[in-house]
Please model this.
Amino acid sequence: MPEPAANQAIARSSGRIADRAWTGYLRPDGRKGIRNHLLVVYTVECASFVAQEIARDEPDTHVIGFPGCYDNDYAIRVMLALATHPNIGGVLAVGLGCEYTQPHRIAEAVRASGRPAESFFIQEHGGTRTSVAYGKELLASLRARAAEGAVKVPMTWADLTIGAECGGSDGTSGLAGNPVVGRAFDRLVDLGGSAIFEEVVEMIGLRDLMISRAVSPQAAQQLGATYDKMLSYCKAVRQYSVAPGNFAGGLTTIEEKSMGAFAKGGSRRIQGVIRVSERPPHPGLWILDSVPDEHFMQFGYTNPNDTEGIMDLIAAGAQIVLFITGRGSVIGSAVAPLIKVTGNTRTYRNMTEDMDFNAGRVLSGELTMDEAAAELMDLIADVASGQPSKPERLGHREFFLMYKHQDVPSLEAGCRA
Amino acid sequence: MQTATSAFQVHDQDNVATLLGEAAAGALLQIVGPAGRHNLTAREKIELGHKVALATIPEGAPIVKFGIVIGIAMRPIARGEWVHLHNCRSRLDERSGHFDVHTGEPGDNAYA
Model:
């Protein structure tokens, strides 16, 4: 890859990037959002149609929810983390009426965060049409209160948490897409921001490398334990995080894919490991562990699809997620914008309507790695300033959540009635 | 005159390089990377993002990319050969060795 040493244009542009600022929304917990969305949360699959209909033709309203009737502490934590995310201004929780997860408990937790929230059971408000009409009334009232309560404040890099996820990786991902994101992560961390990457199941064979990046002995211990749990999990389920499209794109083994995937973590020290629905305790670079802990039910697949991992990063507080895809993808995400990066110029050309950034220009020699990272940082600042990312513009707001078990002693468990 | 397709060698210890374009059988490849530049002839068609062997690799020997072992040669691999599922296996993942070498499609599920 062409990599000229010093470049004055970069020096100039990096000065400008450090100075970028925009207006965001200050939340009562001190965090700042880059969007002021409303959220509809369904508490069982039976309520999902009504929830989706309530949000239909409401451009500022996203939908999340949990399909299971039996509740799950992990799933409740994820929904609460998203319902109190800095990009969310108000929440409507909708249940059927039979399920374990309680909409009113979700609304209470959201109100305790200083946001307006409402809830209802469909069975107490008639059928589909009456519930949708009632939900839309509540949404209008929430929107007015969220707008009234919105506090606009200046924001900069130190106020941002950015996630990185890769999916549909190919032979270019480890050479261009992920390294460019890693370089942008270095810049973000140097500017005081928080950067989180996940996919521990794509760190196969990299135990020593991970530990060598630890900022402290405690972080090294966390990274080692996370790696060991991941490897025994993958061996137990006999499934590694590598898929047909990865092979078709030239990746031959999980070991090869892992080294490419790890490049999105850049080069800065790793502060430690957070678990799903936890937030980084301080800025810097973090790894998110989404692998299920040992449990008698052994439920919860790790990385069942890209959307789950992206939502895990958003639940950790990421206001924006960078998604690196060599093969190409047509997803977006609820709650926080997704910026899609590809290292494959052919994919960029085929899917220009979906792809935000072509890191393949590094492979053709058009850009150096640093120039590409600077351009990506500018795009991040534009999206943070309110410019819709391509998935946002297309109306994408995918969401996925399934049963899983993780011990999170530091967080309160649950929202059960 | 057509310019040679480039292939990137990430680490100087690597015995494979990743193609940055597509190469036909017999095409000239320009290998670029930290170990410098040299030319190599592709022995078969190799797609963008796929790997070419930079040296003769004996059966059972490690396949090295990014300076780390990414798999083991399942049979002797000649210099200039395509390196993929048909001649390189993971040290951990047993399932993927049975997938279609071109599409990656798994053939081990019964859809019946």
Notes: Residues 58 and 76 of chain B are 4 Å apart (CA to CA). The two ends of chain B are 52 Å apart (CA to CA). Strands of chain B lie at 5-8, 16-19, 28-32, 38-41, 51-53, 62-65, 68-73, 82-83, 88-89. Chain B touches chain A through 38 residues (CB under 8 Å).
